[in-house]
Amino acid sequence: MQKKANIKELIVISGKGGTGKTSLLGAFASLANNKVLCDADVDAADLYLILEPNTQERYDFHEGHTAIIIPDLCTECGLCRELCRFHAISPGFIVDPIDCEGCGVCVYFCPEDAINFPVKTCGELFISETRCGPMVHARLGIAEDNSGKLVTLTRKHAKELAHKRHLNLILTDGPPGLACPVIASIAGATGVLIVTEPTLSGHHDMDRVVELANHFQIPAFVCINKYDLNVEMTEAIEAYAQDKGVPLMGRIPFDPLFTKAMVEKQTIIEYDRGSRAAQAVKEIWERLEKSSL
Predict the structure, then answer these.
(1) Sheet harboring 169-176: ordered strands across?
(2) Around Cβ 211, how many Cβ atoms within 10 Å?
(3) Do 50 and 86 reside in the same domain of the chain?
(4) Which of 143, 5, 146 is CA-nearest to residue 63?
(5) Same domain? 72 vs 55
(6) Are residues 185 and 144 in the same domain?
(7) CA-CA distances (angstroms) from residue 179 to 102, 146, 176, 192?
(8) What is this structure's pTM?
(9) In CATH, what number is assigned to the domain containing residue 186?
(10) Could you tell me if 50 and 183 lie in one domain?
(11) CA 24, CA 59: separation in Å to the nearest integer?
């Protein structure tokens, strides 16, 4: 039996949305070789806006349940309404699918077995081709939960695709923040690159993400986007990173070309490889390649 290749996975994350992690991940996609791209920000996936994927495979994501009362069997005894802690059942004995949490208590106690409990379709998962290589991405349905499970499923498909095509790197755009989807996105990763901004809130958010990476014993790296908007805060963040033993991969200057590139559905590398921002990103990628990643 052929031994599977050792696949490395870099997750690009941030303590909040809007720091530029997707633009940075897209730029890495233009620079890296032999990789699979993965968008694990399933609540608000937007890497596809830059890379324009051509979908090859599509799968429904099923998770959780919603109760449905069968009118012909229901005697309107009221027990389900009495037991429902989420007040999801109307006086007319109709279940509101938004209020229903899928706990199943009404199904369990209904004396007439008058409530169906089907599995919900919560989202979609896609395997696509892009100009920068294969990509796995997903989209969670509006107001649906279980995004952590969809993140895990997306990363699983990305690893399977990497094994299938004998590619040794996965570049993953992770969700922002610290909640369940972020934990699901970094568990078992080779390393995480934390993108932050030179603001007080950016410093605080980075601090929390560093602690999260340390908790899971995942090597963390830091880069500062728009560093020149507040050089004093940039230096404070760099001092913090040094104190915590988190390698600093580099600084990226503020550059409207990032926005112009996105409008044109291009990465900053494709749009203007010679710009200061593109050169800074290229240097960050080169440092990551030389690191323990």
Answers:
(1) 54-65, 119-130, 133-140, 35-39, 169-176, 8-14, 191-196, 220-225, 248-252
(2) 12
(3) no
(4) 146
(5) no
(6) yes
(7) 21, 12, 8, 16
(8) 0.90
(9) 3.40.50.300
(10) yes
(11) 28
Question: Sign of dihedral through CA atoms 71, 73, 75, 76?
Answer: negative
How does 161-173 read in b/e, with b if 16+ C-beta sit within 10 Å?
bbeeeebebbbbb
Verify that 176 and 83 share a domain, yes or no: no
Per-residue pLDDT of 239-282, as tens digits, reads 999 999 999 999 999 999 999 999 999 999 999 999 999 999 99
Domain span holding position 83: 67-117
pLDDT digits (tens, 9 = 90+) for 13-47: 998 888 999 999 999 999 999 999 999 999 888 99
Residues 200 and 265 reside in one and the same domain: yes
Rounded to whole angstroms, what are the CA distances from 103 to 7, 100, 108? Answer: 39, 8, 10
| Residue 96 covered by a domain | yes
H/E stretch holding 31 reads helix 21-31
Backbone angles phi and psi of 73, in degrees to 5: -105, -20
